[in-house]
Design brief:
159 residues, 5 helices, 5 strands
């Protein structure tokens, strides 16, 4: 059985026909969102992470029909000057880059929930994401740097 749904991705509405068992990952990639990547296919690596209404979802496990009308964010939709991405680059938090979109989105989710996380809180939040290149220290440093940057910008605006 199939259904017509509206996927609202990065602020753009896409009317698509999906089978009841189509995975969100597959539909997003077919729609052109290539930052959403399959790594493990069982929700254990984080490469397929998207934000659904601000909350992380393993799109390799999620049925697309469940996200009809739900605002979705992929790394493809982040602005050119995204502060999390800037700090990932500054920290050298990537080697092959395959896992980075998922980590960046997880960083956004964490900082929206907790603008001043400790290193332990960052590590705990990222626990479900895997970097085969082992840049965990740099990834955590990038999220810490983003938190400091946002705090400094907020203080400047308040002054």
């Amino acid at each position: 059985m199939s259904s017509d749904v509206v996927l609202q991705v990065n602020g753009v509405r896409h009317r698509v026909t999906v089978a009841d068992d189509d995975l969100l990952l597959e539909v997003l990639r077919r729609t052109g969102y290539t930052s959403v990547r399959e790594g493990c296919g069982v929700g254990a690596c984080g490469a397929c992470t998207v934000l659904a209404d601000g909350h992380s979802v393993s799109s390799c496990l999620a049925r697309a029909v469940r996200y009809d009308g739900v605002p979705l964010t992929t790394a493809d939709g982040l602005p050119q000057d995204d502060d999390v991405v800037d700090e990932f680059v500054s920290a050298g938090a990537m080697q092959c880059g395959y896992c980075i979109p998922g980590f960046v989105l997880m960083g956004h989710e964490l900082l929206a929930e907790n603008p001043d996380p400790t290193r332990e809180e960052i590590a705990a939040h990222l626990e479900g994401n895997i970097c085969r290149c082992g840049t965990y220290e740099e990834i955590c440093a990038a999220i810490e740097a983003t938190a400091r940057r946002r705090k400094a910008e907020q203080e400047r605006r308040s002054a």
